[in-house]
Design a protein that fits this description.
The chain is an all-alpha fold. The protein is built from six helices and no strands. It is globular and about 35 Å long.
Length: 115
């Protein structure tokens, strides 16, 4: 199990959960996620991995035949909204949000991009 998903899946999920965060540079994002993978407890890393696999790949494929990274921003939001409405997937949406928030708190570039 890789502790980090592919950058395209990760970034699509982050952008869908918190629109506008893709404004930061890709290098800052990659380093922030490497830091998260190194510092987060195992259960949080597993939760992030499961959330990105299901919400970034499996669920969008089931709904649209395409991965989250290959959908428009509006379609990504719809996919996550539908996931959040289902009890089993809603928990994964929340795990993903928690992980994004933890990374955002530790990412200088992300904090600087916020209004």
């Amino acid at each position: 199990m890789s502790p980090t998903p592919s950058p395209s899946v990760r970034d699509a999920l982050v952008e869908a959960l918190v629109p506008g965060v893709a404004l930061r540079g890709p290098q800052a994002s990659a380093q922030a996620w490497r830091d998260f993978a190194a510092a987060a407890p195992l259960h949080l890393r597993v939760g992030w991995w499961a959330a990105t696999l299901v919400l970034g790949v499996v669920w969008p494929l089931a709904l649209s035949g395409r991965r989250l990274a290959h959908l428009s921003p509006a379609a990504r939001e719809v996919v996550l909204r539908r996931a959040a409405a289902l009890p089993g997937l809603a928990a994964l949406v929340e795990v993903a949000r928690v992980c994004v928030c933890l990374v955002a708190l530790d990412d200088d570039a992300l904090r600087a991009a916020r209004p």
